[in-house]
TrEMBL record:
Protein name: Class F sortase
Signal peptide coordinates: 1-23
Compositional bias (Low complexity): 30-53
Record's keyword annotation contains Metal-binding: no
Length: 219
């Protein structure tokens, strides 16, 4: 869950105190039988006024992201406005698929949360029982497409697609896709995963997986 993380930097100036010494010494005349007059003592040193340091600016606090439920995922270009179903992994350590097959988008709550600077993972079907599902058009995504994640309190996070790749189902690097090692710490991503390509010999399973990645736009 890599939020922009900017540290406030405070700079201040310190005035230099200057030491000014007055050397006013005077002597009076004296005869042979009188002791010479003692010289007048030197004036006490005085300190020049110092400049007042510029106060440190108060850092602006970063609002805490919403920690409640993820409500909806929207892809305006394709008319997607789907409710979110929280998912995890099954007993075989395989990512679960949405149970509301034709309507919901799954969010894997075991991984990063939207709004917290990480890489939130979503999935949905393309078809289920021959009916279109939320990600039926995901493979057509192009750089610049907008994806919106709406939280339960109405907070909306905006993301822009920058990557669309297809992987074979047997060699898809799920670890790298989830961990996103190439993501900069100051970026926030969402990754959308669905089935794609041709059907296998059974006619029931797709041979490939389409993976679309979008980066958060800060407004």
């Amino acid at each position: 869950m890599k939020l922009a993380r900017n540290a406030a930097v405070a700079v201040f100036l310190l005035g230099l105190a200057l030491l000014v010494v007055g050397a006013a010494c005077s002597s009076s005349g004296a005869s042979d039988d009188t002791a010479p007059a003692a010289p007048s003592p030197s004036a006490e040193p005085t300190l020049a006024a110092t400049s007042t340091p510029t106060p440190r600016p108060t850092p602006t606090a970063t609002p805490t992201p919403f920690a409640g439920k993820v409500a909806r995922l929207q892809i305006p270009r394709f008319g997607v406005d789907a409710p979110i179903e929280e998912l995890g992994v099954d007993s075989t350590n395989t990512l679960e698929t949405p149970k509301a097959e034709n309507t919901a988008v799954g969010w894997y709550s075991i991984y990063d949360r939207p709004g917290w600077g990480g890489n939130a993972i979503f999935s949905a079907h393309v078809y289920y029982h021959s009916k279109p599902a939320p990600f039926v058009n995901l493979a057509k995504s192009q750089p610049g497409d907008i994806v919106l994640v709406v939280m339960e309190d109405g907070t909306t996070y905006k993301y822009e697609v920058f990557s669309n790749k297809r992987y074979h189902r047997d060699t898809i690097p799920m670890g790298e896709i989830i961990e996103a090692p190439e993501k900069a710490d100051y970026d926030e991503w969402i990754t959308l995963i669905t089935c794609g390509g041709e059907l296998d010999a059974t006619g029931l399973e797709y041979l490939s997986r389409d993976v679309v990645v979008a980066k958060r736009i800060w407004e």
